[in-house]
Amino acid sequence: MKVIQVVGFKNSGKTTVSSNVITYAASKGIKTGSVKHHSHGVPDVVPGTDSDRHLKAGATLAGVEGGGIFNVSLQLEDYDFDDILRIYELIKIDVLVVEGYKEKHYPKIVCIGNQKDFSLLDSLENVQAVFLHSHLSLPPDYHLPTFTAKRQDAFELWIDSFINP
Q1: Which helix (H) or strand (E) holds 69?
Q2: In the chain, which stretches have pLDDT less than 70?
Q3: How far lies 47's CA from each of 58, 72, 73, 76, 140, in Å?
Q4: How many domains does the chain have?
Q5: Lower Cβ count inside 10 Å, N or C end of the chain?
């Protein structure tokens, strides 16, 4: 399974870039998965649903399947990222898009939303590409593939070369 992280600070475009990678890979018939690190408290669970009731009753894992969709909620005290990856490997995902988890060592696309965000390029490892808001430009001392929303075609070519080296 190939893993690509999309990282950046809040409102830097992570979800947009992640969605672009997923859309492109899925359009090529690549079995694509995603996992997002939700650092702002508990992720959304639809209140009152049967699976929500099961979780509140004490289930560690609650799933609901129908119409070709299988939603799973898993509640544990502490998640190990490698265990999360194994779940995706179990269902034979080809490409996993990871939004967040900046400290992990996987190849990264760094999203830069403002001038202060450039500090990420010095603090993160395994940066493969940069996605900038259109009013910014990459400082000349960085030599990385750089994209904006205006260069979606070039970004898709890069995604293709990353997925299929």
Answers
A1: strand 69-74
A2: 38-46
A3: 15, 15, 13, 19, 49
A4: 1
A5: C
Q: With CA atoms as reference, report the closest residue to 131 among 103, 162, 91, 105.
A: 162
Q: What is the pLDDT of residue 43?
A: 53
DSSP state of 151: G
Query: How far apart are the C-alpha atoms of 4 and 109, rounded to whole Å?
Result: 7
pLDDT at position 151 is 82
HSE-up of 124 (CA within 13 Å, CB side)?
28
The CATH number assigned to the domain holding 34 equals 3.40.50.300
pTM given for the model: 0.87
- CA 55, CA 103: separation in Å to the nearest integer? 29
**Residue 71 covered by a domain:** no
Helix axes 152-163, 14-27, angle to 10 degrees: 60
